[in-house]
Amino acid sequence: MIEFACSSCGRNMRVKDEYSGKKAKCPTCGQPIEIPRVGAGLSAAGSEIIKFRCEHCNQKIGLPARYAGKRVRCAKCQGAISVPQAAERSAQASAEKIQLSCDHCGKAYAVPAKYAGKRVKCKQCGEAVTVPDGKAELPAEPSDVFAVAAGGMGESDTWAGDLLAMEASAPEAEDVLTVKPLEPDAAASESNTFDDVVALRGGAADRAVRTGKGGFGGIGGVPVAIVASFCGALLGALIWLVIAAATGYQIGYVAWGVGALAGVGMSVFTDRQSVALGVLAAFFGLCGILMGKVFVAKWVVLPMLQKGIAQFELADENIAEMVDDPDTMFSIACLELVESGEIDEEVAWDTIDARMVEDVPAEMLEKTEAAAQKAAELSDRWSSRPEKIAAVRAHAGKLRSKMASFIAETSAGLIIAFVATFSFMDLLWFLMALGSAYTIGSGRNN
What is the pLDDT of residues 221-245, one digit of tens each? Predict the structure, then answer.
């Protein structure tokens, strides 16, 4: 393995020897870097990284050898610890052993402490075993005790593979945190700390350096994360539509899940999380909620409104209200003239529209003027209330059908349905959804 640091930002990285001399991009600062050649004096043996554990919380830490003997602060528990000398740590690591036995077949082993917490495979039974995260003394005559090679089983290994490291063929991805070195005389003082150390990280960062791409974990993943956040919000909107269509109810708290999906889409595809990405995730969450409202209005609420209007049965109080409304009675009079054959149906509806709309084109006024006069005269001739009630009962069905068609065929109907999807509780769900999207998208939940 080749271990080196970015010349621009100081990020320490580790790649396989086969990438020696190749060019890549730093996953932290995005600047181009050239991986040192193995023969140039930088290799796993030539550029030493001291790996040790925090004595307070047992967190794994890795630092360049130049910090040997210095005091640092663990970023996980904030405890002050001493970086061991390289030779001291090497001797200590080789001397420490952990005794364990297979949970399935009982076969006993003793392995170096560096495998603490890792998953290994017992060759005798083939089952996975977790190495205890602790230290134990070796028995005087342990049975089946073998040394585990750091790079996995090789042809020259004398132990012939009784304990196989499950991750032997892949680079070890250390769970190492960034630490703040302290001055020797100020272990507990924050004012004397300095931030020029970046600990080694495995996983996505190493993959980004080996391939020369930012990958999902680097800056190159930000555009992908933005697209994924929008797709997450759109997916949430579609899920909301499916739930509403299946249940017949618009469940408001589903909006919370829409915001969460927008945040998850942003966080999964990049580790370069920031306040700006959190705000963008919240914006996509809001867009997803509004899209969900439109979907539900178009394909759930609007058909329900049409069906309700078409099947609406007039009660006595509804008829009384229609009789007392001059515009309604004018519309009824127009439909009565159609039934008597004095005007055709198209002119009747144009006449009704001209009565309801403020700014009417001159051509329509001229076309409907005669019909409007006849309808007004007929409405005035209905002197008795029973006559008006009978006319309303006779033509109310046509008015309902016309209104249902109006809702289905015009944008005004969609607007009415969209407004109908909102309630006072939506304010709570909106705030929770946007808060979740921002928290997850900006990494504040970590």
Answer: 789 999 999 999 999 999 999 999 9
Burial class (CB in 10 A: 0-12, 13-18, 19+), 41: exposed
Nearest C-alpha neighbor of 406 from the set 310, 291, 325, 275:
310
What are the extents of the domains in the chain?
Answer: 65-182, 216-446
Is the backbone of residue 117 left (phi > 0), alpha (psi -120 to 50) or beta? left
Greater confidence (425 vs 310) lies with 425
Helix 254-268 vs helix 222-247: angle between axes, to the nearest 10 degrees?
160
Sign of the C-alpha dihedral computed for residues 327, 328, 332 and 338 taken in this order: positive
Average pLDDT of the segment spanning 105-121: 78
* Rounded-to-integer distance, Cα 362 and Cα 390, Å: 34
Tens-digit pLDDT profile for residues 295-304: 999 999 999 8
Helix axes 345-356, 362-381, angle to 10 degrees: 100
Can you name the residues that pair with 53 across neighbouring β-strands?
Answer: 60
- Does the model's pTM come out above 0.70? no
| Of residues 17, 24, 22, the one with CA closest to residue 1 | 17
Give DSSP secondary structure letters for 44-58. Answer: TTTS-EEEEE-TTT-
State which amino acid sits at residue 15.
Answer: V
Under DSSP, the state recorded for 298 is I
Say how many CA atoms lie within 13 Å of 200 toward its Cβ.
26
* Amino acid (1-letter code) at residue 380: D
Measured distance CA(377)–CA(329) in Å, rounded: 11
CB-based burial of residue 26 (10 Å sphere; 0-12 exposed, 13-18 middle, 19+ buried)? buried
Between the two ends of the chain, the Cα-to-Cα distance in Å is 30
For the chain, the residue count is: 446
